[in-house]
Amino acid sequence: MNKSFIHVAVAAVVNNKGEVLVSQRKQGTHLGGYWEFPGGKLEPGESVADGLYRELKEELGIVPLSSRPLIRTRHHYAEKSVLLDVWKVDAYSGSPAGVEGQCIEWRAVNSLDPAVFPPADLPIINALLLPDRYLITGKFTSVADFEQRLSAALRDGIELVQLRLTHDWLQANAQSYALEIIELCTRLCMLNSVKLQLNVPDQLETLTSNGIHLNSQRLLQAERRPAGDIVSASCHGWQELEHAQSIGVDFAVLSPVQKTRSHPDAQPLGWDSFRQLVDDINIPVYALGGVTEVDIEQAWNSGGQGIAAISAFWNWPVNLAKVDVDIHKK
Questions:
Q1: How far apart are CA 204 and CA 40, in angstroms?
Q2: Distance separating alpha carbons of residues 254 and 287, to the nearest angstrom
Q3: Signed CA dihedral, 307, 309, 314, 316: sign only
Q4: 7-to-25, 51, 85 alpha-carbon distances in Å
Q5: Per DSSP, what are the bridge partners of residue 197?
Q6: Phi-psi region of 270 (alpha: psi -120 to 50; beta: other; left: phi over 0)
C-alpha cells in the first residue's frame, strides 16, 4: 500500500444559516459523481493557508477572510493515499460559483449523506456535526441541583452533553434516583435539541435511545461498535485511540491534557503530545483535563475538535444557587 500521502487543502465553507458548501466531482475523474468539500492538492512548498486561498479563488471565486483548523484525516485509496488538511471557513468575500463548471450546493450539515461522499470525507462530516464544547456532568446533591446545573449550561449554549453516573455512584444511590436523573437529562436535552451521550452502568444504558459513551475500560473490552445513534469513548493514549477508531466510534475524548485538581498525580500529556496523538487518528477528538473555554483555540490548533470539561461548564452554577439562597435568607 502506498504510504506517500498527497497533501490536500480542504475547506468546509459555512454560511450564516449554518449550511456548508459542497461541490460535485466531474464524471470521468477519480470518484466522479461524488460530492465533496472544495479544495485541492498543495503545490510544492505551499502552506495550507496559501493553498486554501488559491483553491477557493480558483474553484469558487471567493476569498477566505476567517478560517480555523477543523480536522486532519488520512485515507488510502487503491490509486493513491491522501492527507486532507481541513479548515472551517466562516467568512469570505465574493459569491460562490462553480468556476470550473462543477455543480455546487449549500446543504444543512445534518442532511449530508455519507453515502454520496468519498470515504476520506466522512470524518469531516462527523467534525461538522459536533460542537467545540462538550459538557461532562459532575457531582450534584439532588434532582433539583442537577436540573439547575444542566439548565444553566444549556442556556450558555452547550450542545453536547455526557451524563456520567459511575458504578460507585449507583451503589450509593437508589436505581430509581438514577432513572429520574436519566429521564430528566434526556428530556432537557431533547427540548434544547442537544446531543446526549450516556456514560452509565450497563443496566441503565438500554433504557433510552441516546448516544453511548464508553469509558476506557469498556472501550478496550469492546470488539465492535455498540448500538447507539452516536458512540464516543474516553482515551488516555495511542492504544485506546487506535482501538476507538478501529471499532468505529464517532468521536473520542483524550485526557489529561493539563494538570487537574481531581487527579493531581496524573501525568498530563501536554499540547504537543496531544497534537501528535490526534494527528494519526481520523476521528474528532476533544481535549479533556485542566482545560477551560480559553483553551478552545489551542485545541483547534492542536488538531482537536474542541474541549470537554466538567468544572468549566458544570460547577459554576452552584455559586449562583448559593447567592440565591443567601439573598432569600436576608
A1: 47
A2: 5
A3: negative
A4: 18, 10, 7
A5: 162, 211
A6: left
Separation of first and last alpha carbons in the chain: 74
Long-range contacts, 316-321 (Cβ 8 Å, 24+): 316/152, 317/148, 317/149, 317/152, 317/153, 318/145, 318/149, 320/152, 321/145, 321/148
From residue 281, give the alpha-carbon distance in Å to each of 100, 102, 177, 194, 201.
33, 31, 38, 26, 28
Q: Tell me phi and psi for residue 57, to 5 degrees.
A: -70, -40
Q: Measuring CA to CA, which residue among 204, 181, 207, 185 is closest to residue 195? A: 185
* Sole residue written with cell 468521536: 251
Q: Quick one: 247 exposed, middle or buried, by C-beta within 10 A (0-12, 13-18, 19+)?
A: middle
d(CA 303, CA 119): 20
Per-residue confidence of the chain (330 residues) as pLDDT tens digits?
A: 346 899 999 999 999 999 999 999 988 777 889 999 999 999 999 999 999 999 999 999 999 999 999 999 999 998 899 999 999 999 999 999 999 999 999 999 999 999 999 999 999 999 999 999 999 999 999 999 999 999 999 999 999 999 999 999 999 999 999 999 999 999 999 999 999 999 998 878 766 668 999 999 999 999 999 988 899 999 999 999 999 999 999 999 999 999 887 767 778 999 999 999 999 899 999 999 999 999 999 999 999 999 999 999 998 544 444 434 333 333
In the structure grid, which three cell numbers stand for residue 311, read together?
Answer: 468544572
Distance CA 279, CA 287 (A): 13
**Long-range Cβ pairs for the range 244-248 (8 Å, 24+):** 244/214, 244/219, 244/283, 245/281, 245/282, 245/283, 247/222, 247/223, 248/224
